[in-house]
Each structure stands twice: as C-alpha cells, then as structure tokens.
C-alpha cells in the first residue's frame, strides 16, 4: 500500500497509512519503484546512485564535532532503535553467513550543533525540529540543532533505506533539508470511554514517531471512567475506574508513557476535562457534582461540577497541583466543552446563586464563572492551559498564552478567524475525528484539509 506523497506538510493523519506503518516496510517497498518518504520533506533531492549497506559494518555514530556524545542516552537509544528498524532480522542472518560484504556507506554521523543538545530535556511548543541529511559516498551526515531534530532525521534516514533484488539494504545518494510546517502535530487518545492498555498507548506513540507527530493529547478521564491514579485523591480511580487495579494508570505507568514519548520527541499533554464530562469523578468525591432535581426534590442523578461550592475549587486546587507535577509539559488541557445546563437549571441552590450573581438565566455565565476560577487555580501552578473552543466562545477571560482548540465542524473557518483574530494560538481538530466510521478510501478527505484555509492576516496563521 502506498500513502500519497505529493504534499509537503507534516500535519498529517496517522490513520491513513496504518498498513504501511505496521506492515513489513520492506515487503511493501518492493512494490514501489520510487523511495517513499512520509511525510515528504521540505527539500528533497535524490539521485540514482545507490549505496549498499551491510548490517555487519554499518553504524550510526556521533559526529566528531557533535555537542552530544555517548552520554546522551536519548540518542544512544534512538541509534539502537533505528538500527533495529533498518536491519532487524537481517543482522542475525548476516552474522551467520561466512562472509559479510563491505558497506559502500560505513556510517551515519549524527551531528548536534547547538551548545545544549537537550538530551535530558522535554520537547516543547517552541522546539526546533529542523534537520538536514546528506547521504553521499562513504558517509552520511545528519545535522540538527538538538536531539529533537536528530530524531526526525533518523526517521527519515530509516525510510530512505530499501531492499534490492538480492535482499541487500540500499540507500541512494540524497540531500534533504526539512522542518515541520506546524509546531503542534497531535493525536488525541481517549482512555476513559475505552481503557487503553499501556502497550496500546506505547504502540501509538511509536506510530506517531514514524509519522513525525509530536504531541500526545491524553484525554485520560471523562464521564465513563477515571483511570488516572491520583496520589492526593486515590478514591477517584478506586471508585471511578472500570476496575481499581486492572484498569488504572499508576504513577509509574504515567511516568513510563511520558518517558517513552520523550524518547521519541513527543510531548504528553494531559486533559482533565471539567466542569462537564465528570460523571466518573463523582463516584469518589462526595459533593463534587451538582445534584439534579426533579421538581422540588433531588432526583438522585448528578450533573457537572458544582460551581457554587468553595469545596469544589479547593478540590481542584489540590488535584491540579498534583497534575502539574506529574506531567512535565508546560501545558495542561482543561477541557471545558459540552457543558449540559439542564441539571444546573433544575437545582434551586444554583438558581439562587444565579440571582445573587446577577446572571439571570444565562447559564453560560455560570460556566464562565467556574472556568475563570479554574484558570486562576491552574495559572498558580505556573502551567499554561489549553481549552476547547466553548471556553473562548463564552467570553471567558483567557491568559495570552492560552491555546484554544477548535473542534466543531460548523463554522470552523469563522471560529479560526475569531480565535486567531483575538490573538490566541489555536489547534484545529475539527476535520479529523477518526472515530466517525466511513467506508472506502476516506483518508483522502482527511488528507486534503488545508488548516490555514481561513480569512486572516499573515500573522494570524503564522505565529508558530
Ligand atoms: C535509487 O537508485 C536506484 C538504482 O540506481 C534507482 O533505480 C532508483 O530510481 C533510485 N531512487 C530514487 C528515489 O532516486
Ligand atoms: C467561599 O469563599 C468566599 C471567598 O473566598 C467566601 O467569601 C465565602 O464566605 C465562602 N463561602 C463559604 C460557604 O464558605
Ligand atoms: C465570530 O465573531 C463574530 C463577531 O463577534 C460573531 O458574530 C460570530 O458569531 C463568531 N463566529 C463564531 C463561529 O463563533
């Protein structure tokens, strides 16, 4: 299967080429008469001069001039990983053969140029992921400012390798210089509606790296279940997970996901969505959710987080203090989407509060009241926040560095115009809801979306 390669943006959808990702790369490669790179680099020049690579003698090494060396475990790990991708079982076969042939190309030198290679750091929204790669006689050189660009270049190098008719790995003379078009290239996984075992999450991160995606948006909790194990409030997962032991993410699980992602240049942005989408939170925390009324008495069911109790905010302050230390990324996603007002409307205490505050019957004002206080709580942890578009639509006062995520398909272009026009950074997810099942070759539809196709000034679409 071939994924279409004509477009340059790195902002692509992972689902379109699952077969290519998980299938045997070299089997598929045989069917192609040209080397396929995914996504296609910004500048790419190849020639028909082919070099042979022998698993027995080829090496990935630190360039002499590089500011990173063998103590950079992130790169050492990546060198091993990519060598395995490229040679895998062949290495063992060749070893068992009596005479290994000589490589035309003996090494790939990885040259990190900036004073701080960022070996122990985390990628961020401002990370420079650019790299250049030159494959020529005797050696290949991959040059990048830091480890993050090097990871992207190693991926590209591995995709250039193909198998010839004799089962030998080859790579052509090539010159590439590349950088992503968008700073945020994310995949959202929802581990609340369906609990995702750790190995599924790790496999997704692996697939993301192969497609140069760099943000794992972990929609970790929601109405159906609360699998995140909190040290401050263990009852949240004890009572809110599908199962308190088998269907939870322990602190060490979460650490593992974050480190596995870091090794691949992927940020982990956790989403703790409130005040809606919180049914599972109510199982463990008494009085957190609003009691709904049927007529003049409580109906026994619960709605969004109760925005009129101080205890709700005290709880959020403690929870987000923990979350801000567990997840190293500079951003936390606070949700804020799809708040259902019917329960708030039914509750007499809420009605009284609405009157006191002068909100009339405009429940979006109550929602904003809640979100505003939550934002202040999270800002105090020194984290930035991402929110779904409703928070912006309702006129909540947002910090300048807030990222607004546009997810509704209706009026998408106008929303992008409004959000960026107000000076906010935006993430667009509306066109790529892969859970909408359709048949046939629907990937083309996802592929053809142009995120910047909305009215705005140059700066509105190019601030990152
Ligand atoms: C790579 O080299 C081979 C052998 O000369 C040639 O057939 C092929 O077209 C080249 N591929 C690219 C993408 O340049
Ligand atoms: C809630 O907090 C506010 C401000 O901190 C305070 O004025 C108010 O008395 C508190 N309400 C209750 C019921 O404790
Ligand atoms: C964009 O802003 C205009 C002007 O405030 C408003 O009328 C319009 O409804 C907004 N569009 C969307 C999709 O929210």
TrEMBL record:
What's its top-level EC category?
A: hydrolase
GO MF? beta-N-acetylhexosaminidase activity; hexosaminidase activity
- Superkingdom as given in the UniProt entry: Eukaryota
User: GO cellular-component terms in the record?
Assistant: cortical granule; lysosome
Q: What is its main location?
A: cytoplasm
Protein family (similarity comment):
Belongs to the glycosyl hydrolase 20 family.
Q: What is this protein called?
A: Beta-hexosaminidase subunit beta
Q: Which organism is it from?
A: Danio rerio
